[in-house]
Amino acid sequence: MKVTIVLPSLNPDEKMIHTVEGILAEGFDDIVVVDDGSAAEYKKPFEAVAAMDGVTVLTHEVNKGKGRAMKTAFEYVIANRPDSEGVVTVDGDGQHLPKDIRACAEAMVANGDKIVLGVRDFSSPNVPFKSKNGNNITKAVFRIFCGIRISDTQTGLRAIPRQHLPLMCEIGGERYEYETNQLLVFKDKGIKLHEVTIDTVYIDDNASSHFHPFRDSWRIYKIIFKHIGTSVFAKFVGASVLCFLVDTLLFFLLNVGLEGAGMRKSDGQLRIALATVGARVVSTIVNFCLNRKVVFKSENSVGGTLVRYYILAICQMTASFLLVNLVAERLLGMSAGLGESIVKFAVDMCLFAISFYVQKHWVFANRNKNGENV
Which of 40, 94, 156, 266 makes a 20 to 30 Å CA pair with 149? Predict the structure, then answer.
């Protein structure tokens, strides 16, 4: 394989030297190490690896961030490695084992234009709580709101075919948020992913990581929220708000109209029921049309899609009733009032997110002749 290993590093210790030695021993002969503005007292590891055959060290005079370091390496490979089939990005702290690096490189070569992710098993007992919890939350956000299914959202071990490198240089982000941006761009560009399970290695509870839990997490989630704001989910929320307003307005007009048509006050329950049903029928039809044409752009037949839509609506309404009853009355012992309304709001918000996922992947999902989602 003619594959280039890219290793960005900031203020490394001896582990970076051992990582490079292990990669060379695995048979790789082209490693690009980027010194991302390390302090003077941390220069010896770079000097040590620069003296090894097959290693090129590029230097940032000041710290610019992991994302910028990776793009510097990608630009160098494009300009100076015309025969390279692609790159494998590696962390220099010993968490990526040479055998796993090779497995990802081989998978990249075998899978054509797919990008390969080396994914860890977060159920392993040696995974730090903050890493396990952070990945589970981010994985759920990616799946529900961005439509991206991946096992490891934080992996730095990624094998990228050469044809994608120019795009990698254009992706925004200079620090840790760059790798999150990559995943969103892969989805938007229709670039397929292939996962390779790797060993889960944490040294000293990941103490050598330069990831700042609050600052860098904010940068990552800010990008995700921005993506959600311009995504299918934003349109879904907008359509739902519009239909809520339609439902409310129609209820008011029907209720007033029925009373004006001669319904007595003694018929109040019937009047309210008719106004509620009439408004809900119209608003759900409007919501169905908006979701089908504008939000999810479904090309399936109206009949089957409409049946699935109302099956979901009935299930959602039933689930709301049962959960509110279970949580508010059975578990918390609440009676009618503000507390019960708060529980209903929380339950309905959770069901709203689930409804989005189900509508996207079942109700309105475009299907091929074999009935598979496309």
Answer: 94
291 lies in the same domain as 224 = no
Indicate the angle between helix axes 129-141 and 215-229, nearest 10 degrees.
10
Among left, alpha and beta (phi > 0; psi -120 to 50; other), residue 65 is left
Distance (Å, whole) CA 174 – CA 65:
5
* Same domain assignment for residues 325 and 299: yes
Q: pLDDT at residue 18 above 90?
A: yes
The pLDDT score that the predictor gives to residue 258 is: 80
> How confident is the model over 139-163, as pLDDT tens digits?
887 777 777 888 888 888 999 999 9
Domain boundary among 175, 196, 229: 229
DSSP-derived letter for residue 373 is B
CATH number of the structural domain spanning residue 52: 3.90.550.10
Let me know whether 223 and 347 are in one domain. Answer: no
% of the chain exceeding 90 in pLDDT: 45
The parent domain of residue 91 ranges over 3-229
Average pLDDT estimate for 348-357: 89
**How far apart (Å, rounded) are the C-alpha atoms in residues 154 and 137?**
11
Does residue 68 register a pLDDT over 80?
Answer: yes
- Cα-to-chain-centroid distance, residue 274: 43
Nearest Cα residue to 19 out of 73, 94, 118: 94
